[in-house]
Amino acid sequence: MPADKHSEQVDTSRRGFLKLSGRSAFALAAVGSLVSVVGYTGVRWQQRASASAEANYMVLRPQDILFFGALLPVVLGPNPSFQASLTSSANPASAPVVTNTLGQLDTMLAHSSPAMQKQIRDLVDLLTFTATQGLVSGYWGQWQQASPADIEAFLQRWQNSSVQLFRFGYQGICQLCQMAWYGRPESWADIGYPGIPSFLRGANAGS
Amino acid sequence: MPVPDIFREGMQKGWRVFDGNQRLPELPAPDVIIIGSGAGGATAAEILSAAGLQVYILEEGSLKTSSDFHNDELKAYAELYQEGALRTSADGGIAILQGRTVGGTTTVNWTSSFRTPNSTLAQWQSKWGIDYATEAEMTPWFERMEQRLNVSRWQMAPNANNDVIRKGCEALNWDWDIIPRNVKGCWNLGYCGTGCPVNAKQSMLVTSLPAALENGAVLIHSLRAVKLDHHQGKVLGVQCQGMNGTLTEADGRRFTLTAPNLFLAGGAINNPGLLLRSKAPDPHQQLGKRTFLHPVCMTLATFPRAIDGFYGAPQSVYSDHFNEVAPTSERMGFKLEVPPMQPSIVAALMGGFGEQHFQRIQDLAKSNLMLALMRDGFFEDDLGGQVKLRKNGDAVVDYPLRDRLWATVAEAYVKMAEIQFAAGATEVTPLHIHGTATRSLSEFKAQLAHLAYEPVSVRLSSAHVMGGCPMGADATMSVVNPQGQHHQLQNLYVMDGSLFPTSVGANPQLSIYALVARLATNFLA
Prior knowledge:
The structure holds two protein chains of two kinds. Chain A is an all-alpha fold.
């Protein structure tokens, strides 16, 4: 893990911070803390990053959709229903399982809080802005063109990071994708969940 | 509808229930405004309104009732939980499940109803000067609320997920017992966490709130208490604003309500948040401190048989074998229970991604999650968290994770794995960012030696938020007095779990009901 080796050498005290900030705030992003990185860089990116939600979405912006859309198949892994829908779609990025799960994710975030929404936007910005993406993720290309191996390597890098920000990011990305997909009825057949008791799908449902 | 929606029926009969964004009709002026409609607020509302006081209940969450509850996890998390069930402590170290709806957490909790442990009461009495914190003084209040909410030991057989605790503890000769639940005519469905669709759970939504509304109380939901106006030791009124449709922000109609007395019952994060926003007097810097979470760590077990933990009463068996510790202990006490096993929440808890995650979730129907609920706040070095304000005024709890907690996690992991293996598990995995399945207790222990005990890596959750406005006889170390009255603002009372000066050491709802029943009754005296 290059980022981690890096962090061991870096003095994270105030003096270390000042020394580093001469180099660049984005280098700091590779080793720094949640607040300083996301707080500082967030300001810098406002001019560059698209700030408003994609049409038909409440929270997710175009770059969020590209990012989560690219990561979903890797996070969810060999889930038969998900993979079948992907392979039968001409364009996997717009397969119904992807768009439905992103829609679900959007609803979840829309009901969360301004702080959580900002955290997700900052996270995606850190992982999609050209100057920071490679440094923090180890992957330099467009996420929608990343191979599964590239994405796995990124997720493992953050999973194994000594930086709490990255572990939190890893956990957040995985949990949001997993919650959204496994909350949807089309995912249940693969995991032995028979679904909600039938009478609740009948007269009482939708009343 | 197979089951009558008693709340909607009551509204048709003329209960005074309003949306915070609608213009209010001419109403009688309140004697008491209660902020929050959960365990504390609703209990106080029933008692005051029965005595003839005009009560207003304000609730930030929206109104959802049994006909809205379809056991749809994601819909429920989004609509019924604080921050859409995505709430965490400030640094993301602990995920926090807390209700945000009419009825508060009681609408979505898992119905476990324990009396406050005697050892907890003893500490409240000796360290915090709460003279009535004794078994003898509190028993009548527990009995009263148990009767009111139909609390009794669960009579049906526990589901297999809960039965893991019984089987494992019996094999190991450790204590276990059946959980008392607040249900009446329970269908044993297992979906308490998404709102009871059959009104069997005796939550505030079907008990104390209807009683208060029958007594003429006014309930205004989807309304945030933004700020208290206060002057010279008295609260003058509460500035309110209607919530937006997704309950993330107050952006609606603003108005101020006034009453001779105010009760805070918005929970242990939102109460201190409101007082901080209001710049309430806090001469000893106690406000928001001593916020406790009962942080929970978990182990995942796979069995060679069906567990189907998504069905059946979510919590029916517990073990207190490790819940009492000596004052010299290096760890906290912990209570052992299980959570319900619905797919979305379990998928998010079990950890990993890709192949590893799919292997785990594929075994959902054969899986058992066990949790250790850590009893925080009982030691000098265990101060819990502190509620602070975000830039936009929202409250957040900063909860540093200290050595004592990690020592407790390490021990709880082993004890839970022991129970799971003793109950016949073939594999047990600690819910840690690097946790992997092990096939024996020795392999499990060997793995623990290599795991880092650090934030986020150890997966921690909480479903019990307590403290933040601790009560105590000594004004230099508490926010309110033992009667719930604010030390500096004489017509302001705290009436919910934020009163607790430590955690409870058990699922807190019955502790809140009983304490508030006592305090609200004394308020009338």
